[in-house]
TrEMBL record:
Keywords: Ligase. This is Glutamate--putrescine ligase. InterPro entries: Gln_synth/guanido_kin_cat_dom (IPR014746), Gln_synth_cat_dom (IPR008146). Belongs to the glutamine synthetase family. SMART domains: Gln-synt_C. Pfam families: Gln-synt_C. It comes from the Bacteria. Residues 127-462 form the GS catalytic domain. One of its GO terms (molecular function) is glutamine synthetase activity.
């Protein structure tokens, strides 16, 4: 008779109190980080034991306040609350040590996310605060969103250092041709997907699927549904992991919205709405229906009414709009909606409890917290104003000339955003002014630059 096998020891949870993680996983490094305006982790690296002693002694942690006001290159602002005129003072970080996370893609390292605090309260311009406000206002209406995010990005051969050494030219995608749904990816791409799934799973961030996309070297990653803010944090950590794993394999993961060669990469937000008991509010039949409820129609109408004026939250850079410049690219150019229609800005998909709104406007370069805040603000506007949606589009939305166009440039988007009474009402005037200033910094950067394309066209012909 075969001896009974001992019960397997359950794996240690990768999320929990910091001291427990440090002990269970023999960690020596802790990253204390906030999420900046660009959706990146920014902060400081600490010795695990030293940080525990410092926190136990009641010491505070600070970062330079300019982290909320720089452009993508970390250039300080010329004006505003985080600028040369402010003196660049420190902002206190309030670390959430009870929700520390193991980062398996870095050796012996945990992450502690921290809130930025202003006068004892969450900083009003921090992306986490902007999103939390929209969630709180929706909750007052009895609406609880669930969110899943899918993102496209491009893998290139060589590391970032290699790309910089070449002057950012001669970028070679890690796979050739249209690899949409392909299951015979080149070895490095296949190994990237395997390692990415492994490290994210070990961090308690399981990936739903990794697939090849329609352009050379392009990959799409989707995540399961979850709590709205957690879905956004998961996405920030996923990007950090993807870049680290790619670098370890001699690759570069690019989350530009428009890559060389005309490759557009999007970040699609899948949003479902539920009541306090978890019943779908979007579906007319919450059990298995595919038709929108009256509230679902209001939500769609609010999205279409608001998103065109909120461009800097879901398309923050000059490059972002080049993804939206071409018809039939699977990036929307018209503010229209339809049932399971990928030519629309808002695609209604699923049924019953899973009926959801896929917001296809954001690019892969967007900060998920701000992009989702924009979408939820629009949904809330539609519900409170009881807006009626236009007819659903069953055909090609790209040729629907009577539907409003999406902004075609960052300059247009900033102008619409600053002039929008709706943006000020839904987001707050300080947030609008601040995000408009950050977007203007990207415009100012590009205005003075002579691009390779200008030289190619103008050197001999002008």
């Amino acid at each position: 008779m075969r001896a009974a096998r001992p019960a397997a020891t359950p794996p240690t949870r990768p999320v929990g109190p910091l001291e427990q993680l440090v002990t269970d996983f023999d960690l020596d490094t802790v990253l204390v980080a906030m999420i900046d305006q660009q959706g990146r982790l920014k902060g400081k690296e600490y010795d695990a034991a030293g940080l525990a002693e410092r926190l136990a002694a009641g010491s505070s942690l600070e970062v330079c306040g300019y982290l909320l006001g720089t452009d993508v290159d970390m250039t300080p602002a010329a004006r505003g609350p985080f600028s040369w005129t402010s003196g660049f003072g420190d902002v206190e970080m309030l670390p959430g040590t009870e929700r520390a996370r193991l980062l398996p893609w870095l050796p012996a390292t945990a992450l502690v996310l921290a809130d930025l605090v202003s006068y004892g309260a969450p900083h009003p311009l921090a992306p986490t605060t902007v999103l939390e406000r929209q969630l709180r206002l929706l909750a007052r209406l009895g609406v609880v969103p669930q969110v899943g995010i899918e993102t496209e990005f491009v893998l290139y051969e060589g590391t970032l250092r290699d790309a910089e050494a070449s002057g950012w030219r001669r970028l070679r995608p890690a796979a050739c041709g249209n690899r949409d749904y392909a299951l015979d990816a080149p070895g490095p791409v296949r190994e990237f997907g395997r390692r990415l799934r492994q490290v994210l799973g070990a961090a308690g961030l399981p990936v739903e699927a990794v697939k090849g996309e329609g352009a050379p070297g392009q990959v799409e990653v989707t995540f399961p549904y979850g709590v709205a803010e957690e879905a956004c944090i998961q996405h920030v950590l996923f990007k950090h992991a993807a870049k680290t794993v790619a670098d370890g394999l001699g690759l570069t993961a690019s989350f530009m919205a428009a890559n060389p060669g005309g490759v557009g990469s999007g970040m699609h937000l899948h949003v479902s709405l539920h009541d306090g008991d978890g019943r779908s509010l979007l579906a007319a039949d919450p059990e298995r229906g595919t038709e929108l409820s009256e509230l679902g129609g209001w939500a769609v109408a609010g999205l279409l009414a608001a998103m065109g004026e909120f461009g800097p939250l879901w398309a923050p850079y000059v490059n972002s709009y080049k993804r939206l410049a071409t018809d039939h690219s699977f990036a929307p150019t018209r503010l229209a909606w339809g049932r399971d229609n990928r030519t629309c800005a808002v695609r209604v998909v699923g049924h019953g409890p899973s009926l959801r709104l896929e917001v296809r406007l954001p690019g892969a370069d967007a900060n998920p917290l701000l992009a989702l805040a924009a979408a939820l603000a629009g949904i809330r506007h539609g519900i409170t104003a009881r807006l009626e949606p236009p007819p659903a589009v069953s055909g090609d939305a790209y040729v629907l000339l009577d539907a409003p166009p999406v902004p075609c440039s960052l300059q247009e988007a900033v102008g619409l955003f600053e002039a929008s009474a709706l943006a000020g009402e839904l987001l707050g005037e300080p947030v609008v002014r601040h995000l408009a200033r950050v977007a203007q910094m990207d415009l100012d950067h590009h205005a003075a630059r002579v691009t390779d394309a200008e030289v190619e066209r103008g050197l001999a012909q002008a």
